[in-house]
Amino acid sequence: AESGNLAGVRHIILILSGKGGVGKSTISTELALALRHMGKKVGILDVDLCGPSIPRMLRAQGRAVHQCDGGWVPVFVDQEQNVSLMSVGFLLEKPDEAVVWRGPKKNALIKQFVSDVVWGQLDYLVVDTPPGTSDEHMAALDALRPYSPLGAVVVTTPQAVSVGDVRRELTFCRKTGLRVIGIVENMSGFVCPHCTECTNVFSRGGGEELAKHAGVPFLGSVPLDPELTRCLEEGRDFIQEFPQSPAFHALSNIAQKILKETPAQLS
């Protein structure tokens, strides 16, 4: 692959999950915003063909994607232009359309997505991948491998079922030679909007236990924040409201650990 469009990208992080519904797209977005708060220039590549939800979270739905000589130009989602987004969602005629394609066509789109987006200079590119260890998953990894990704952040929820799926995901990383930066446990408690006490709705600590067992770092737990959910549902400004959320503190700590993982001369 010609390193053309990714030549200015210093680090690529893949966000993986063993199954859908664990909040992988939310973690991808929140991690990108936490890195932005640390003064980094960040891109988000949303290759989750089944549910490209990030444009909605960042109020970028329906934005037109322009083409230049080098390929597609990503959409800036903040005024300072420190976060750019490219999503499959931008290419659908209507936001509610489904991508009903067979494997080869999906894989070709993913490969094109990886090579044909003109990112410019970025400190981090956060890639929201399709859930599971499917064909599309492999296509995303194959397309990114020539650019030596920094590694993968694996998202789970506290329940044992999700943890079992993640075990498979870790095996996938091992077999494909993708380094695991660490595990994030999402939805690991409910933060009361009135008294900010955190209650464990599900069991607790499954992600940490699994990380210990698998010998990979545990990056942290991210609580459920109903206020943040409401903000998304009502289409309010997530970028503005996120720093007030308890989830922001958790994600900042996780981002800090990822920065530490980045070789000093590169960060």
From TrEMBL:
Matching Pfam families: ParA (PF10609)
Subunit annotation: Heterotetramer of 2 NUBP1 and 2 NUBP2 chains. Interacts with KIFC1. Interacts with NUBP1.
Role of this protein: Component of the cytosolic iron-sulfur (Fe/S) protein assembly (CIA) machinery. Required for maturation of extramitochondrial Fe-S proteins. The NUBP1-NUBP2 heterotetramer forms a Fe-S scaffold complex, mediating the de novo assembly of an Fe-S cluster and its transfer to target apoproteins. Negatively regulates cilium formation and structure.
Subcellular location: Cytoplasm, Cytoskeleton, Cilium axoneme; Cytoplasm, Cytoskeleton, Microtubule organizing center, Centrosome, Centriole
GO MF annotations in UniProt: 4 iron, 4 sulfur cluster binding; ATP binding; ATP-dependent FeS chaperone activity; metal ion binding
Name of the protein this chain belongs to: Putative atpase nucleotide-binding protein
Organism: Desmodus rotundus
Listed InterPro entries: Mrp-like_CS, Mrp/NBP35_ATP-bd, NUBP2/Cfd1_eukaryotes, P-loop_NTPase, YlxH/NBP35
Gene Ontology biological-process annotations: iron-sulfur cluster assembly
